[in-house]
Amino acid sequence: MASQTVEEGESDDGPIAQRAQEAIRNPGDAYQFLFYVVTAFFLVTTLFPFYWLLVLALTPGDRMTDIGLLPNGFNPASFVEMFQRLPFHVYMFNSIVIALTTTVIVLLVASFAGYAFGRLQFRGKTALLLVLLAISYFPPAAFIIPLFQFFTGNVEILTLPAVGTIESPNWFNTPGAMVTPFSALFLPLSIFILTTFYSQIPDGLEDAARVEGATRIGALFRVIIPLSAPGVATAGVLTFIGVYNEFFISFLMTDGQAQNWAPIVWGVVNYQGQYQAFYNLMAAASIVGVLPVVILVVMAQERIVSGLTAGALKE
Amino acid sequence: MATSDEHGRGRVRSAAVAPANWTERLSEQGFAYVLLVPTLLLVSTMALWPLVSTFEMSLRADALFSAEYVGEFVAFENYAELLTGQRNAILGSPFLDFSQPFQSALTVTLIYVAIAVTLETVIGFGQALVLDQSFRGRRWVRVAILIPWAVPIAIQGLIFWLFFQPGIGVGTDVMQSLGVFSANPLINTTDTLIIVIVADVWKTSAFMALLILAGLQSVDRSLYDVAKVAGASKSQQFRYITFPLVLPALLVALLFRTIQSMRVYGIIETTGGCSTLPSLTCMVVSTFRSGRYATSAAVAFITAGIVALVALVYIVKFADLEVGA
User: Fold this and answer.
1) How many domains is chain B partitioned into structurally?
2) Are residues B202 and A123, on separate chains, in Cβ contact within 8 Å?
């Protein structure tokens, strides 16, 4: 009865005041409302740039002024033309090949190391882990000058009296000059992830395989790695995305020609340098260039989330 | 045909079995070292040797007109001249000059890191609080928040370069009507700094959010029930339960983001360019390109030194927390 009179008293106020009254009486609803507003804000801020890229890409090249929230016309042909002005597909192909090769090498090397760190006892274990951690902290700028000399064939590795000097390989403009440094720089994260996963496999399972006659290496490949499949997938996805996204070494280890294994970084830089006015093509190229990682994020988001948090919090 | 194929396969098999059998005779410690050989090989040639070599080069003089990369030993002269501004003429922009903080590389980098990481923390915390709720479509909200994190730096740069292109991008119109930006923000130093910070916050808040979310989810939910019974408001619950328990995860996230944003280069190169907004890594590249390898190495090592210092501060702070808890 009392509550009814209160409600009647309120009906004189405007709708906003009523809402405020309601919020004070029932804070839960207010928080719920706030929650939707905040969620919508985050969705708009993260996704709006992609929508706007689509608007820009669909606008015909001769109507590039005063673009609002809708395209000035409809020209999907820019998604074809972006490959004709510059061989953007070749840059993407190069990036994907470099990222996949690095991922395979990292997974193999990190599996051996993860087994040693996760399942074996040996002297210098903690020290080695700390060295790996420290390496992942250093900026790539602190490595680049010697690496550049190395991969342009200008470092003498050793001098043998009979054979002469052995020089480092000239891999500038080849995938090797990117894959090898990436393998080292992305290795620590994968080692940390795989060490965690491998250490959680019960000893009994490995012992059973050994009793059945499997070698140590056989047990690693037939028991430990298959049982840690989620961990291997996590390390693989993070390495692939990391390499595909890398800027610094990708930028400096080729001369920027698509036929010389220049990755996607150079596709972007060349577009900005040579085709300044083709904004619609650049927008189309951005959308296409992002697709591989967007697909990966949609398909493997659980792995990415667990890998980022486990990898970082472990360290 | 079949037999030769089988023969070949047999040979491959025995080639794989031989080393596997050899490892059987090793002790546990020996086996561990064997497994670590590829890691040590990669890390020592691609990271440790370059690091030592960079430091060694930074102690020598530039050798512009010689066949050698670097000249004679000069001890810490490169460092001294960089920090006192005697190298500014060859760098294009000053290295360290407090009177023009937006033009000198060291101050630009530090300002960028401080503002970007602060904003990422706030926004990341907000995103984490949203993702911590259970609601329909949570999975897709998480995907949406995560997508910018996966965008390649070069494309991130291209997006924001387009977005703030005068006459094309919506961003410039909005900022100019607010009276913040000049006519062409991509050749203006402070405007470019704002653009680069916005771009970085857009891309990396998700990383912060995920680490903070992991911290949030480790909080025991029954604590909130106790707080509710005790009559604590939502903001009190946040201050006295959520924040202190999330702090360790937050510190780790801060450490990672600070270290990573100290390297800022690609996003500058693909938006306003290093001549508009010089960062430390910009200077490594420009001196490297002009053949001043010793100066380049010194700048790179100063960057690494600051990173090490920052890491140390966080680790000490983190150790304090562990001891306190």
Assistant:
1) 2
2) no
Residues 6 or more apart whose CB falls under 8 angstroms from that of B83 comprise B95, B96
* B130/A39 CB distance under 8 A: yes
Instruction: For chain A, list residues with pLDDT below 50.
Output: 1-11
Same domain, B132 and B175: yes
Does a structural domain hold residue A5?
A: no
- Do B92 and B39 fall into the same domain? no
**Conformational region of residue B92, where left means phi above 0, alpha means psi within -120 to 50, and beta covers everything else:** left
Alpha carbon distance A144, A146 (integer Å): 6
For residues B307 and B235, membership in a common domain is answered with yes
What tokens appear for B139 in the block?
């999975």
Q: Which residue in B31, B39, B270 is closest to A109 by CB distance?
A: B39
Whether residue A178 is found in the same domain as residue A219: yes
Domain ranges, residue B27: 2-43
DSSP codes, A121-157: --TTHHHHHHHHHHHHHS-GGGTHHHHHHHHBT--EE
Distance CA A227, CA A211 (A): 18
CB pairs below 8 Å between A and B: how many?
A: 278
**CA of B98, closest CA in chain A: separation in Å?**
24
**pLDDT number for residue A6:** 43
Both A230 and A122 in one domain: the answer is yes
- If asked whether residues B223 and B286 sit together in one domain, one would say yes
Q: Are residues B111 and B23 in the same domain?
A: no
Its pTM stands at 0.89
Least CB–CB distance from B23: residue in A135, A215, A268: A215
Cross-chain CB nearest to A123 (options B29, B42, B296): B29
Residue A307's nearest CA partner among A242, A227, A235 is A235
Q: How confident is the model at residue B194 (pLDDT cuts 50, 70, 90)?
A: very high
In chain B, which among 6-65 make CB contacts under 8 A with chain A?
A: 17, 19-21, 23-24, 28-29, 31-33, 35-36, 38-39, 42-43, 45-51, 53-54, 57
One domain, residues B128 and B27: no
A142/B153 CB distance under 8 A: no
A99-113: burial string, b at 16+ Cβ within 10 Å, e else: bbbbbebbbebbbbb
Question: What is the domain range of residue A108?
Answer: 77-314
Question: ipTM of this predicted complex?
Answer: 0.89
If asked whether residues A41 and A105 sit together in one domain, one would say: no
